[in-house]
Amino acid sequence: MSISYEDVGEQLRRIEITGRLDVEGTNSVASQLVELTQAPKKGVVVDLTSLKFLASIGIRALITSAKAVKERGGKMVLVVDDGSTVMMSIKATGIDQLVPVFGSSSDAERAAVA
Amino acid sequence: MTGVVLAADGNDDKPGTRTVIARPGAPGADPDDDRAHYLVVIDGAEPGRRIELGDKAVVFGREEPAGVVIADPLVSRKHCRVGLVMGELSVTDLGSSNGTFVAGRRLSGSCLVAPGDRITIGTHVFEHEWRSRKEVEAARNVDSDLEKAGRYVRSLLPQPIEEGPVRTDWVLQPSAKLGGDAFGYHFIDDLTFAIYLLDVTGHGTDGAMHAVSVMNVLRQRALPGVDVRDPGRMAAHLNEMFQMDRHGNMLLSLWYGVCDLGSRTLTFTSAGHHPGYLVEPGREGAVPLDVSNVLIGMMPGFEYRSARVEVPPGSSLFLFSDGVFEIETGNGRPWGIDDFVSLLTEPRETGKAESRRILEAVAARTGRQSFEDDFTLVVATFA
């Protein structure tokens, strides 16, 4: 499992998480996610389309990040494939009520800087 | 927490980090199997005391020469004898004055004790563990706080109910790292039965202690300003009490239901938890009891919705944590919530609690003796 990011201009940061966001070895990725989302960008897109599994520690990291981004006046959105197991977790836990979720990265990027 | 397991993608066995569960078949057949039988004091003078049982039977009593001395005036001098019979734990009452209880039932003569079952002698409660010696040793050395937290959670769990309008049975196999699962049930009054299961999104001591705090609210039969019969209000109340920013960033999922036995209606809410399932006696299907709400602690002011379902006579309600279906199989076969739910409608087995039948079936189908997360399943059957 790994996390990477790319800054798109001044306004936007794209973060991608791949592999399994579950307990083994997740601690470091979870804290990196929280850290990376704190960049002074207007919009943060977290791409989870290559993530295979989202367990509780990952859910916590996503929620903590989204709250902190909101607090500093930014906007965090997620990219998730509809019908994936990750999407099922996001819906079941209600993360989608806190963080907007998109099926495509272009939609997500537009929404994040809107 | 919620999620669904995919096909195994590596990341397999790490010896000594898992909890071992009972598996049908000959114990000890596997040479790597170093499991031993233990009785652990859950409630009593020395909570956490762990007694390993060997081939030689041992007498439990109030004073010497009993092999295990229990300082309890309600325990007879020679109270009961515990030992292994064909690799299984057996207990024999030795004519004690106050009785020996196994899983809540008074024993006459001898009986076998399944892993997870409790033996009550006087005011002392012992839980039968069948665990790897390595793991027990690791747990003892590495984190006695974790052990204590786990015991604290277990001490809050209710006994199975064997008679009356609602019967219950359950299994909770804690993982070595302790997953923060807990559950409970009680009668609010003669005709109102409350039942709940929660799963904290955090492992270890902190997760377990958070579960304890929430349980201590849920266990109340009355709360000031909150109608405990209203699952939506109950979830909202907990949500206000346990916001993550004031509680170490911990969240939890909760399924909470209240059954009015007079009108046979079950009102329930699910706060970021997967559904509970209702299975009618004909076992033709499992009805998911789901309402979409957010995790407890995530959004202050969230209004939790609830839903209602009729409970036909003889139906069973199944509540469980994600540890029962988020399992990486040992045989390459996928295992997810649908696979788990399909077990609920399989036939009962005579003389075996439903929770145990299902636990054994999961172990058999996934090819695993031990699970990475807490395995918690509660079954309530309505007369």
Structural commentary:
The complex is a heterodimer of chains A (114) and B (383). Chain A is of the alpha/beta class. Chain A has helices at 26-36, 56-71, 85-93, 105-113, and strands at residues 2-8, 12-21, 43-47, 51-54, 75-79, 101-102. In chain A, strands 1, 2, 3, 4, 5 and 6 form a 6-stranded mixed β-sheet that branches. The longest helix of chain A is centred in the middle third of the chain and has 16 residues, at 56-71. The radius of gyration of chain A is 12 Å and the shape is globular. With 383 residues, chain B is α+β, with helices and mostly antiparallel strands. In chain B, the strands form 5 sheets. In chain B, strands 3-2-12-11-8-9 form a 6-stranded antiparallel β-sheet. In chain B, strands 5-4-6-7-10 form a 5-stranded mixed β-sheet, with no helix packed on it. Chains A and B meet through strand 4, helix 2 and helix 3 of A and loops of B.
Helicity range of chain B: 10-25%
Strand tally of chain A: 6
Q: Biggest sheet of chain A, in brief? A: 6 strands, mixed
The secondary-structure class of chain B comes to alpha+beta
Strand order of the largest sheet of chain B: 3-2-12-11-8-9
Structural class from helices and strands of chain A? alpha/beta
Output the radius of gyration of chain A.
12 Å
Beta-strand proportion of chain B: 25-35%
Indicate the percent of residues in helices of chain A.
25-40%
Features:
heterodimer, A: 6 strands, globular, B: 383 residues, alpha+beta, 6-stranded antiparallel β-sheet, 5-stranded mixed β-sheet, 18% helix, 32% strand
Describe the protein's topology:
The complex is a heterodimer of chains A (114) and B (383).
Chain A: E1 2-8, E2 12-21, H1 26-36, E3 43-47, E4 51-54, H2 56-71, E5 75-79, H3 85-93, E6 101-102, H4 105-113
Parallel strand pairs in A: 2-3, 2-4, 3-5, 5-6
Antiparallel strand pairs in A: 1-2
Chain B: E1 19-20, E2 35-43, E3 50-53, E4 58-61, E5 68-69, E6 80-85, E7 88-93, E8 100-102, E9 105-106, E10 110-113, E11 118-121, E12 124-132, H1 133-142, H2 144-155, E13 166-173, E14 181-189, E15 192-200, H3 204-218, H4 231-241, E16 252-260, E17 265-271, E18 276-279, E19 286-289, E20 307-310, E21 316-320, H5 337-344, H6 354-366, E22 370-371, E23 375-382
Parallel strand pairs in B: 4-5
Antiparallel strand pairs in B: 1-22, 2-3, 2-12, 4-6, 6-7, 7-10, 8-9, 8-11, 11-12, 13-23, 14-15, 15-16, 16-17, 17-20, 18-19, 18-21, 21-23
